[in-house]
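Appendix B.2, paired examples.
Example (i):
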Amino acid sequence: MLSGDDREFVRALTESVAELGLPLTDLQLKQMRLHYELLRKWNAKMNLTRISAPREAARLHYGESIYGCSFLKGAASVLDVGSGAGFPAVPLAIMNRELAVTALESNQRKSVFLKEVKQQLALSNLRVETARIEDFQWSCYSAVTSRGLDRAEKMYAELVGNLNPGQTLMLFCSDAMMEALCRDLPSGVELEPHRIPNSESRVVVFFKLAY
């Protein structure tokens, strides 16, 4: 039997994805809910996210991540840098079981949480790696993504500057972060922003080499 929070989360997530025109299957909705249950349980013991209320989590965490998934058609693999509570890695893995998703998280306890999520949701296409991006080989991935990292301008700039031909960087960030990265955009790198629906200051920005 679902708790009140779980029922509210399911309603809010269903409404959110309907607004995006990206409906969920029953299995996808169940897996999102199970992830949310684990998130709330672990968040009581450690700081996974400050946004855990059902409606806010459904719209800001899950809805935003699902929106990003719609842009990854054709990608074979994606690396989520600083995955934390699993956004966008877990929704990406749930939405597209053909996509090989790696959640990269340097914090050991958060990494343990992500491994628990992988096991409980039976996400065979999700891999969890405990490492810093500086120590990780990421050139083999079709796409690299990151969302909601604080004080990450330097790291994001380095990712933009080290893209390989054919590789895409997808950042979920604020307008301010996008503008900061644009000020020192490396030669040959193209930028494509998409406003996140129902958000006044959040965008999904794509960076890739023009040649």
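Example (ii):
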Amino acid sequence: MIKLIFSDNEIESLKSERYTHPHPQVQRKMEALYLKSLKLEHHLICRICQIEEPTLVRYLRAYEKSGIAGLKCLGYAGQPSSLRAHKDTLEEHFRKHPPATSAQAQNTIEKLTGVRRSPTQVREFLHRMGMKHRKTGFVPGPSDTPEKQAEQAAFVKKTSSPNWRKPRRGGGWFFSWMPLILFIQPIWDSCGVFSVYF
């Protein structure tokens, strides 16, 4: 068992940062070390934090080596990307000539750098550069000026079907149940099948 000595300030820091730190993995590390400061056994700490024993030992060694600052280091630098070396060139090119589709951007990247990536990877790369998808246009609302209103009215009259505003007549036939009921009522009364009095 690893024996560590915790000061009162470190315990308070662990106690508060296990909930307030922005990264959930660091929160878990703080929780594990806070439970260790309460002198709980390793198997209980692992059960509460839902981690394995080697992970807990790694947390304890990081704290032993660098203190609380060692717990905040995630140690993940990410995967190296061959497009990062060409980021400035590609960004300058795409700012001047924005691609219409991700396939077009994929072909441009391959021509400029010789690196081929899938359309999904290209979209993520463009997003990391700060570029966004182009949004489709929308139908404008009515205009404020009389000239524009007349122009819009002329366009609507020119492009619309002449019959689209005409109301439709109610087609088909109309059927009322009342005459049928009045006609059948005397027959039912004479047969004794059904009797209704109004």
